[in-house]
Amino acid sequence: MKSEKQIEQSLVKAVKNMGGIAPKFVSPGFDGMPDRIVLLPYGKFAFVEVKAPGKKPRPLQISRQGLLQHLGFKVYLLNDMNQIGEILDDIRTA
């Protein structure tokens, strides 16, 4: 089973291979924001919350995801290496 850190590193590598970046997203004073912002070529972007397999987002994280989605942003929960390709394809084709 992969750790959260391993899944996150795989996401960053996969995004880089697509010509994009996935910087750590830090928002001082506004806790609960997703871990990474995925920025792909041609202005495609989304937020990604990374969790270890079987782990769930905290209530505040769920609330922040809902806020971002309400504002029209794509937000993904990534907790399995096998989801990376599907998530990136979805962002790329949005």
Radius of gyration: 13 Å
| Helix count from the secondary structure assignment | 3
Unreliable stretches, pLDDT < 50, 5 or more residues? none
Structural class estimated from helices and strands? alpha+beta
Shape: globular
Strand order of the largest sheet: 1-2-3
Quick one: how many beta strands? Answer: 3
Range of strand content:
15-25%
Largest sheet: 3 strands, mixed
- Average pLDDT level: 96
Series of H and E elements: HEEHEH
Provide the helix percentage. Answer: 25-40%
Distance between the termini: 30 Å
How would you portray this structure in words?
The protein is of the alpha+beta class and about 90 residues long. The chain contains three helices and three strands; from the N terminus they run αββαβα. Strands 1-2-3 form a three-stranded mixed β-sheet. Strand 1 (about 35-40) and strand 2 (about 45-50) form a beta hairpin.
Outline the fold blueprint.
Elements: H1 4-17, E1 36-40, E2 44-50, H2 59-70, E3 75-78, H3 84-93
Parallel strand pairs: 2-3
Antiparallel strand pairs: 1-2
List keywords for this structure.
94 residues, alpha+beta, 3-stranded mixed sheet, 3 helices
